[in-house]
Every structure is written in C-alpha cells, then in structure tokens.
Amino acid sequence: PDKNPDGREIFEAVNKAYEFLCSKNKEFQSGPSPIHINLILRTQSILFKRYGDVLQPYKYAGYPMLIKTIVAETNDHHLFGNEHTVLPSACELCFFTIANSALNAEELRRDNGLEALAAALARCVVNVGMLTKPEDMETRVCTFIVRCFSESAAFESAREKIQEMAPIISDICRLMQYKHLPDLVDACIDAASNFAQDYWLQTQLLQAGVLWSVLPHIFNYDYTLEEGGVEVSEATNTQAMSNRVAKQAIYALARLGGYMGDTPENPAVRQVVHSLLTPYIATLMLEPDPKLILKLLNSNVQTPYFLWDGSTRSELMKYLEDQVESRVRSGVNRIRVTGQISCSPLIRRN
Predict the structure, then answer these.
(1) How far apart are CA 316 and CA 276, in angstroms?
(2) 63-82 pLDDT per residue, tens
(3) Exposed e or buried b for every residue in 247-273, given b needs 16+ CB within 10 A?
C-alpha cells in the first residue's frame, strides 16, 4: 500500500483472506482444516480458468503437495462418507494445470502424478452406477481424472505410461455407458479420441469394447435442435449436451479407424463401421463435420446410396445392447482385433 495508495482496499482484503486460511478451525484441531485446503485448491483452479494465458508460460510449482494430497485422500478409508474431502478439488486443479500448459503435463508425469490419478480413479470408479448423480463426489473425481489422462495423451511419454495402466482403458469404456452423466461420458469419449493416436492404445480400447460403448451415443442426436436456429446452453439443455456427445462419438470413431489421417489406420474399426453403419456412412467419415452423418443416422432416408429407417436403428441398437450384455457376462469382447463382423439385415438393406 505504501507504493500503491489506490491498492489499500484490495491489500486489506487479501490480508484478511490470508489470516482466515491460517486460522485454526474448531472442528479440526488435530491438523490443517480441509475446508481451508479446499478453498486454496478452488482458488487456484479459478486463477487457471480466468488467467490461463498469463500462467501458460510457467510450470506449476505445487505438484509435490498436490499429488501428496490426492494420494492421502485416495487412501482415506472414510473417503465416501467424508463431506469435507478435498479430492474433487485436487483433481480439478490437476486438470486445469495440465490443460493450461504442456510443460505441466510432463512435470506431472515425472512426479509420478499419473500413477496417483490412476489409483484415485480405481478407488472411485467402482462407486459409479445408474443411481449416481452428476454432482456426486465420485462422478466429479472420475470426470476430472479422465480429462487429465486425455490431455496428457498429447505426449508420447505419457501415452507409454498409460499403456501400462490397462484398468484405465476398461474403466473409461465402462463409464461411457452412463448416459445420465453426460459430462463424464463426454470426457471418456474425448479420452478415447486422444488415445487413438497411439496404435497400442487403439488396440487396448478395441479389446475393451470401446466400439459398443461409443456407438449408442450417435443415436441420441436431434438434428432439429441444430437446425432450429435457437441458441441453447449445454449446461442447461440436456439435448444440447447429447448432441455434443454424439458429435464427439463420430469424431472418436473417425480417429479410432484412422479416417482423418492423423491417427493409425485400424482395419478392425473400419470393418465395424463399414458393416454396421453401411459403406456409404464409412465414406462420410472422412468429412470433418459430423452433422451430416448424424442427421442421416437419425432420420428415415431412402436414396440410391442409403436406406435407413426406424426399424434399422432399432435392429442396430438391439445388436449393440447384446454386445454390451455379452461382454458384461463373459468379460470377453466378441470382436477380435483381426476379426470381422456381419450384421446381415443391415447389409441386405444397404
């Protein structure tokens, strides 16, 4: 304040906040207050969201303490009954640091942060189910951690580390099935897209049944919302979010099959797309905009190139459901990486 007379008010506010964070909380006499720790973590996340361009050139210096916090919270036996857990905020901050700067992704890997995140994901993923809500702690933790892995996949060294963590792949594929958790599904499909740049991760995803998890989301698309000209928010409009996930699903299929030229070509994925979505749709996978594909697959169409209606969609959805149920019962993916698939009624129509 002596050098900036106009800054006295903000200086006093900062000093008051600092004193509050350093003060003892009556409820937590034996150690630091998790409420205060949570405030510190959330504050850092806000800084990265609002001033990411300013922080982008710098490495995040707090990984040792952040990773230590994630490990401690993950190992807490009362994690799911602890209303003051800081695990969601710690995972959220971890994501924002990685998304903000490439330097941070490499730093996190070197500090064994990916292993800590994998352990936290394994702890929380088992509690995610059909009754789980978007605001639940386990949903938020899984969403932020999956996004952390998705962002880290931009680096070869991180992808090599993810290859060693096979449960992550199967967990991501399973989480895609919970349509009532759209943010989590969006994060998982985005991760599959980013993992697809690595051949071995492509293979692991295919073996984990990623196609049966991704394909159903294509049929939740409503093209009338896109063509209506009305602006809607994905945060408040369920259909708008479903449309976004559907677009992500097409993009993921294109990258998994190597249609876009920036990922390895995968004959097994291409065979599935060719057989289930028809050869005509397979040719459209080269297009950068997925709206035409989604409109065709969610409409009744009769052209020399493409025959598609409600019964065709119902057939395909039933087939996909059977694949998912078969995998859940046996734990084995029915389509081998080098295998072929034939959905004869669909092929006969097209």
Answers:
(1) 7
(2) 999 999 999 999 999 999 88
(3) bbbbbbbbbbbbbeeebbebebbbbbb
